[in-house]
From TrEMBL:
It comes from Terasakiella brassicae. One of its GO terms (biological process) is phosphorelay signal transduction system. This is Two-component system response regulator. Keywords: Phosphoprotein. The keyword Methyltransferase does not apply.
């Protein structure tokens, strides 16, 4: 039971029966003697007849007088009973008005135990306040008995003091009062505030006086006063109602609190900043002993204020900074009065952290250092994030080797250093042979593991001053700076090739790969960064063309070839714009009927100077540069135009034209849309078209290709698998993809007469395809024996020089008409 509950009577006033019962019942359980009323009138009557220590009063009540009005009435009548106000809505103005009217507490009605808990606390606080006020009143009465003695003392006090009668006239004041308002005593006595002060201040003073006369007691108010020199002062006006010898009057004192208010505001602001700022703050004395720390200090370091007071902050040191660092810091601090910088310290749990620290010296009026204030923030996360960003920007995520950005930077620096010291820099470009096969057959996880192991092996073959980088995919580079002998390059290249040729044991697989290395030397082969990169790349491709697992030094002959390729690329671009590429057609004959049923569209370049150029002259560079997309678009466009023309020809209208799709075209997300749009534009049937793709193309993205081919076939276009047998997983892909036609590569057909192995393979392919419901085309048939062989194996279709070379559209039409006439 609370101490206040003993012999304490509480009146609960609320027009809400539930609240009234809830509050009275709860307080009764706490040991209070409670009574209830449902309106203000009954409550006032109850208070007149019975002694009550505390009233729990509802702010809003119906009908009649509400709670706030009842409280003001009680205080007007001089009642000092403690009052706790209740309200159902949190309104700031109501709370302020109630507290000003004399309520000891104000409680918001909420649900459940929270409201009762606040109620219990509010009641206890109000009773304690009431008890305190009672003691203060008793003390005040004792002071009044000594009024005459105190008056004498007050006359000697430097604080301005005055006396007023019931009419508000000054009947006395001390010298300090006269001096402050800059008016002689004789001019003050008998005057009212309205005769001494400017209107706003006079009205305020008069109103305070009236309130004191009406209510008695005392007041403590802050006033604003402007002296004749224009200075603005804040005053704490203390006034008390007194009635000595039956004559009513006021006794007041005025304290100039301008400086104190300014100091308090500054101090309060400083304390708020000190306690709430996110930066840690440490205050030390002149001997660098900690005097105070803020909560953020504890949050950052883990040490509480009690654990660090009186200690030198050096106990936080991480050991990363040496004595020279701290000596320089203190020297700058003593000379300039401040220091800032990055520093590493240690938390209580032993973890290291980085902080940005600013230290300022505090001086007294004699310019002597009395304290130091250190402000720091934990920047560990920021530094780690910056380090991570720098690492991600400069290092390959898979192998942790320098990436292209860092590689280019180091190569540039090595070139500058070599030029300064008259040395050489070797640049190696390295490409893993057969890596794509590993990636496609064993999966990307094994491929990634292979790249990681290859990176380790390459790194072990070079010096610490050399740089091994991964540019992407299976492409690596090695920078060998400060080179004096070219023979050193050969040693490193051979060492790398040997390491890469050793078997890799990954995920239960023993994998064999090799490397092709191209080497260029600065400044012998070039003095420009881009030139060196191009030279090394060119040399690497020459090593790959030479049979792989080898290295090649760049030569000027390679440069000439690279120049030719560049010129060729430029010419191809122009040829695409001028539409110099034309389509030739090679007939495909049905074996049983001997009738032409389709043809393959083959691109040729009608070069303005070289005449008709075969595709082996430009296809490779077109694929490499991506220009094959433009050529492929021209071919498809010309084929659709030709099919449109042939639609009116009774012989040609049933001839299906097969168009080769390049890997670049298969990666075009808009390919199906573009095909459908072209069919609609030229008004041709999808059945008149077929697309040929190679097994190698399928392997590059099996899942994506499967979706794409399904979408193309959904248009009604046939899909041919070209160059069958030259890939890696022929049987697997025949099962997974719905090919309409399979074309046996010409490399198997050309030797069927003399090579029993090729003959057996061709026979097996035809049987297998037929079992899967796929028609077969034998490509490259040039002799009668070859024709008879594939015919005997029941091959469906034949394509090759035996019937016709690729011919233009007009010749193709004539050839088909002649064939039709014979059959």
């Amino acid at each position: 039971m609370p101490v206040e509950a003993q012999n304490t009577k509480i009146l609960v006033v609320d027009d809400d029966l539930i609240i009234r019962k809830l509050v009275s019942g709860f307080l009764s359980q706490k040991g209070y003697d409670t009574a209830t009323c449902n309106n203000a009138g009954d409550a006032l009557t109850h208070l007149e007849n019975q002694a009550v220590n505390l009233v729990v009063l509802d702010h809003l009540m119906d009908p009649g007088m509400n709670g706030l009005e009842m409280l003001k009435h009680l205080r007007t009548q001089g009642s000092h009973v403690a009052v706790v106000m209740l309200t159902g809505a949190e309104e700031h103005e109501v709370i302020v008005e109630a507290m000003q009217a004399g309520a000891q507490d104000f409680i918001l009605k909420t649900g459940g135990n929270e409201f009762l808990l606040k109620l219990e606390q509010g009641v206890e606080r109000a009773l304690r306040v009431c008890l305190l006020e009672q003691k203060m009143r008793e003390a005040h009465e004792a002071l009044q008995q000594q009024a005459e003695f105190l008056q004498t003392v007050i006359d000697a006090v430097p604080t301005p003091i005055y006396y007023k009668d019931r009419e508000g006239r000054y009947i006395g004041c001390n010298t300090a009062m006269a001096d402050f308002i800059e008016t002689p005593k004789s001019d003050i006595i008998g005057k009212k505030a309205t005769e001494l002060y400017e209107s706003v201040l006079a009205e305020r003073v008069s109103r305070l006086d009236d309130t004191l006369y009406a209510q008695g007691g005392h007041s403590l108010e802050e006033l604003s006063f402007t002296r004749s020199d224009g200075t603005h002062h804040l005053l704490l006006h203390k006034a008390r109602f007194q009635e000595p010898g039956g004559a009513m009057g006021l006794v007041g004192a005025v304290v100039d609190i301008t400086d104190r208010k300014l100091y308090e505001n500054e101090l309060r602001l400083a304390q708020t900043v000190f306690e709430t700022t996110s930066e840690a703050i440490v205050v030390t004395d002149a001997h660098n002993r900690i005097q105070a720390v803020n909560p953020s200090f504890t949050h950052v370091t883990g040490y509480t204020e009690d654990e660090v007071i009186g200690r030198d902050p050096g106990f936080l040191s991480s050991g990363r900074q040496d004595k020279a660092f701290y000596h320089k810091m203190w020297l700058q601090l003593s000379q300039n009065g401040h220091w800032h910088g990055e520093i590493w310290n240690r938390r209580k749990n032993g973890d290291l952290y980085a902080e940005w620290l600013s230290i300022s010296a505090v001086h007294n009026e004699n310019n002597e250092t009395t304290q130091y204030v250190a402000v720091f923030s934990d920047i560990t996360k920021r530094i780690k994030a910056e380090e991570l960003i720098r690492h991600q920007a400069n290092y390959d995520a898979l192998t942790n080797l320098p990436n292209r950005n860092l590689f280019l930077d180091r190569l540039s620096r090595s070139m500058v250093r070599a030029k300064r010291h008259k040395t050489q820099v070797a640049l190696m470009f390295l490409d893993l042979d057969r890596f794509k096969s590993v990636n496609d057959t064993l999966g990307h996880n094994v491929g990634d593991a292979l790249l990681q192991e290859a990176a380790v092996r390459i790194s072990t073959c070079v010096r610490e001053t050399d740089t091994v980088s991964r540019l992407g995919g299976d492409e690596f580079t090695v920078i060998i700076p400060d080179l004096h002998h070219v023979n050193d390059i050969e040693k490193i290249a051979n060492k790398i090739l040997y390491q890469l040729s050793q078997p890799f044991s990954l995920a239960g697989h023993e994998i064999f790969v090799s490397g092709s290395v191209g080497v260029t030397v600065f400044p012998d082969d070039g003095q420009d960064l881009e030139v060196l990169l191009r030279n090394a790349d060119t040399a690497m491709y020459r090593a790959k063309e030479a049979g792989r697992n080898d290295f090649r030094f760049f030569t000027q002959e390679m440069n000439a070839e690279a120049h030719e390729q560049m010129v060729l690329e430029r010419e191809i671009r122009k040829a695409i714009k001028k539409e110099e590429f034309v389509v030739y057609y090679q007939p495909v004959v049905d074996v049983k009927q001997g009738r032409i049923v389709s043809c393959e569209a083959l691109v040729r370049w009608q070069h303005p100077f070289k005449g008709l150029v075969a595709p082996n002259y430009f296809i490779a560079i077109a694929e490499e540069t991506g220009l094959i997309d433009g050529i492929g678009h021209l071919v498809l466009k010309q084929v659709c135009q030709q099919i449109q023309k042939w639609q009116n020809d009774p012989v040609m209208k049933d001839i299906r034209v097969a168009v080769n799709l390049s890997p670049h075209q298969l990666r075009n997300n808009n390919l199906v849309h573009d095909i459908e749009k072209m069919l609609q534009y030229y008004g041709i049937s999808a059945g008149a078209l077929a697309f040929e793709i190679t097994e190698t193309q399928v392997m590059q993205d099996p899942e994506g290709t499967a979706v794409l081919l399904d979408d193309i076939q959904a248009l009604g276009i046939k899909i041919y698998l070209d160059d069958f047998g030259t890939g890696y997983s022929s049987l697997n892909y025949l099962k997974r993809f719905s090919f309409d036609v399979l074309k046996i590569d010409r490399s198997f057909i050309m030797d069927v007469e003399v090579d029993s192995g090729d003959a057996a393979l061709v026979e097996a392919i035809i049987v297998m395809a037929h079992k899967l419901g796929i028609k077969v085309v034998a490509e490259g048939v040039e002799t009668e024996n070859q024709r008879q062989f594939v015919a005997q194996q029941e091959c469906d279709l034949i394509q090759g020089f035996y019937y016709s070379r690729p011919i233009d559209a007009e010749e193709m039409s004539s050839f088909c008409h002649l064939n039709f006439a014979k059959n």
